Structure formats: structure tokens, C-alpha cells
Transcriptional regulator, ArsR family protein (Streptomyces hiroshimensis), 252 residues
Amino acid sequence: MDKVFKALADPTRRYLLDRLHENNGQSLGELCESLAMSRQSATQHLGLLEAANLVSTVRRGREKLHYLNPVPLHEIQERWIEKFERPRLQALSALKERAESAMSTKPEFVYTLYIHATPDKVWEALTDAEATAAYWGHSNVSDWQVGSPWEHRRVDGSGVADVVGTVVESDSPKRLVTTWAGPDEERPAGPSKVTFDIKPLGDVVRLTVTHENLRDEAEKRMAAGGWSSVLSNLKTYLETGSPLPADLWGRD
């Protein structure tokens, strides 16, 4: 949290977040267009935002695209707002919603979080049916081989899958890519795609989740709220051995 508050204390860095809030997924050149400073200075500010996990980056060819990452803001909300039983700040809600906006050629969502765990433990938490049932409320079921189907099954014993898809990439414990769609859903543009990138950094793991090809604004809003809750619960589950309390889990 110290890095987050330090990053937010600077007006230039807040301005950069506002720019991403308005149009997510910008290159350094695009962000520098309205800044009265050198590219080197802007890079330093973006580096501090990235270190605070407020900005995530994804390379597309030679370009490095910057995305607003609302997960730390969600964690601030849980730690500093919810425990005092205050209403959610409208600004945080606006940031989360506007973070969904992206051009069709860019990932709609890029979330990054840091977890005190090993890559193998993170991979297991994403692919083990019992583990996903504990913190996600659904079981992810597959053999996780490339080309295999996977299902996001309810844990009420019905066996109903609310999401189905195909494993596109499976490189344990580094990278998992799957398609997502409802079992009877018609999607003219094809299913959405979720990528989990797992990278060890000392005794922690950086997990980056990219969700692409979302259909419309309603689906974007649903995905934004869902991923914030799922990733917070995943982090808590891996670091403490237990998911968040049920009353907190049900709020998003």
C-alpha cells in the first residue's frame, strides 16, 4: 500500500492514470502528447505507477501498451473503506468502469497482482477443481491439454457449467490461455479469450490476467466486477489458506 499511496500523491502520475482512465491501453508516445516533459521523465513516472501495480503493460509488436490496473484500488477499498462501513466511493467505481474501455485491437482488460506463492501453487489454484471451488465459487474442470475442452461448473452438485471453452495454450506453470463462452451462447465474433501469465519474482509471483474479445459494454462491466473479486479472493486464498468471508465475496 505504501507504493500505491506514494504513486497517487504526485499530480503528474494522477494525470497519467486519468489519461488511461479515459482511454485504456496507450503507448508512451500517446501518453506524452499532452505532457510538458521529456519521454524519459514520463517513463520514470510510469515506472513508479507500474511498481505500485497501478499500471500494467503488454507488448504488441514493438509497442508497449499501458493499462490502468484497478486491483490495488479494489484492495484499498476493502482495507480502508469497507472496514469502516462507508459507502463505496463513486470515483473508484468510475475508475473501474472506465478501465474497461479499450480499442478493439487491444486487450479489453489487463489485471496484474502480486502473490506470495510459487508459480506451481498459482497454476494449481487456477486449474484444480477443488481449489477453484473454494475461492471462485465454480470448479474449473479440464485435463488442461491444448485443444481440450474446459468447464466452469457450479459447486451445487448439479454439474451445470456456466462457462465453457477450449484450452488454447497450456505451459505449466507459466501461461494458460482459454476461450470463454456460455454453453448455448451465440457469439458472432467468437468466444472471449482469457490469458493467465505467471512470472516468479523472488519469493512472489506476478500474475497478469488479460481478457479479450468481450462483446459489448454490458459484458465489459460484468467482467470488470467479476475479475476484481476473483483475483482478490485468489490472492487471499493462496496467502492465507482460506478465501475471503462469504459476505465480502458476495458483494461483487
